[in-house]
Amino acid sequence: MRHALRNTIHALYFALVSGSSRERKSLEASKGNHLATRTQHADQFKDFNGYTLRLAVKSFFPFAKFVPDTDRPGTSVQFVDCLEVRMLREMARKLNLTFRAFMSVDDEWGQPIGNGSWTGLVNALMREEADFGTCLFPSAKRNTVVDFTRMYAPEPFLIVTHKPQRLPQYLAIIKPFTLTMWVAIVASSMAVGVSLWILHRGWLKLSTLRALGRARPTDAPETSSMTYAIFYTWGLLLQQTPFQYPTDSYSRIWLTCWIVFSFLISTVYKSALFASLLVPQMSEPIDSIPQLLKQRGWTWGMEPHYSVGWQFLTESTNPDNQKIAKALGVRDIAEEMKLVSKGKHAFFTWNNYVKSFIAAEYTDRNGYTPMYISRQYYLETSGAYWGTRKGAPFLRTIIDIKQHLFEGRILDFWLNQIFRRTTKLARDKNGPSSYIQDDGMQVVLNLNHLQGAFYAFFLGMLLAVLVLMLECFQKLCSPDK
User: Which residue of 252, 261, 265, 422 sits 20 to 30 Å from the alpha carbon of 375, by its own alpha carbon?
Assistant: First the structure.
């Protein structure tokens, strides 16, 4: 209890005695008393006799949540129902102690600022202004100035984005095939057209009828043009019925093969287009930092807690993490989640912390939420710990009590209970959600689904009008006119 012996469990001292028999007997009796006293001291941390521990806190729901009494730095706080408050009450009941909780002056977790100094909760523990701090994550640097209990709840670092959204529908007309497939189809059509023109020209030159002078140039006058042959094969690919067929057998056999190929390609295209209109393609979900860096026009940010997650991004030697750190915005969770809801924004945060916020603010009564939590976790070994000042003699007792709660699954039960209660209160307060869901019902194809086809139609009409105007202008300007 004395400040000078605050980190002392056992003390060894020496006393000078004379050699009389009476004093030796007194010394032997005192040894027995010392042994009893030692046993008593070893068990003293099972009952604190109402001792008050100083507690440095920072809100981090659902683990820790406290309401400050005033707006002044380092103010005292009032407990709010959360996981750590329930743990503290259980500890106070078993150990017969009380707590005096207060916030750090700068309301930060703690980061080094040079010359061996720290900020936030770490600073309060290092200067022994507090006996222990709640929900403090360990790191290599923090371990040198603070002692930690065992982890009682895992809390990995992750990315929150908007759920994958539908891709623009104006691309639906080209989505059934890949770019390579489209290039192959166009190249094949041009190759078949050129081949048809070569076959027809060869037949006209080598035909016996041509040699006898009985061939009629009007049999297929336009097939002698390469441009006509290319458009002819392209029309067959688009399922247009030709108004004139070649007269030679070679060209007919060649076109028969092309017609079969065109039928197969058009059938596959129509089936894939119909499927893509029924089940629109979605954008790629963001599950990792490399995926995030590949996105165009995206932003990202995190809260100004300067926690272990901040150090993971800003002090990392990984090139991807360094790129993230250069454009990392700093905002509170409400502003970050608003940007995420608008799309093309990523929020770096912690798992249970953000899940509780999403459940309360961005989830409707049916359980739907527009937010997406990445599948890949970072800092997977991180979690909720308690930090104590160096050499605190009651550390072992706190670890034992938390271990009993963890092994008995009481912490999981409390955490789920807090989730359900806070979610219900938030939904009752916010009222019905306005989030739009896909109910799985059949929908009618409208202009939004077919806008790509209309764009292609109007583009083709414009091109046709321009070609017609060019032909008319050429006719007017021809010398024969």
Answer: 422
Mean pLDDT of 443-465: 74
In Å, how far are 181, 349, 351, 352 from 356, measured between CA atoms?
47, 12, 9, 6
Say which range, 165-179, 207-221, 322-336, 376-390, has the weakest mean pLDDT.
Answer: 207-221
Inform me whether the pLDDT recorded for 367 exceeds 80: no
Is residue 348 very low, low, confident or very high in pLDDT (cuts 50, 70, 90)? very high
Say which range, 96-105, 318-327, 356-365, has the weakest mean pLDDT.
356-365
Provide φ and ψ at 478, rounded to 5°: -70, 145
Which range, of 19-23, 72-76, 227-231, 250-254, averages the lowest pLDDT? 19-23
- Find, among 131, 125, 129, 127, the residue nearest to 146 by Cα: 125
pTM: predicted TM-score of the whole model, two decimal places: 0.65
Going by C-alpha positions, the residue among 152, 146, 69 that lies closest to residue 103 is: 69
Rounded distance between C-alpha atoms, residue 429 and residue 446, angstroms:
37
- CA 32/CA 378 separation, integer angstroms: 56
Q: Alpha-carbon distance 436 to 442, whole Å? A: 16
- The proportion of the chain whose per-residue pLDDT surpasses 70, expressed as a percent, equals 81
21-32: string of b/e by CB count within 10 Å (b at 16+)? Answer: eeeeeeeeeeee
pLDDT grade, residue 328 (50/70/90)? very high
Residue 22: per-residue pLDDT? 58
Under 8 Å between Cβ of 348 and 292: no
CA 175 remoteness from chain centre: 26
CA separation for the pair 229, 292 (Å, rounded): 48
**Residues ≥6 apart with Cβ < 8 Å to 147:** 387, 388, 389, 390, 391, 392, 395
Residue 293: count other Cβ atoms within 10 Å of its Cβ.
14
Dihedral sign of CA atoms 71, 75, 76, 80 in order: positive
Contact indicator for 144, 387 with CB cutoff of 8 Å: no
Distance of CA 402 to CAs 74, 186, 397, 399, Å? 27, 70, 9, 5
Cβ–Cβ < 8 Å for 174, 182: yes
- Percentage of the chain lying above the pLDDT 90 cut: 24
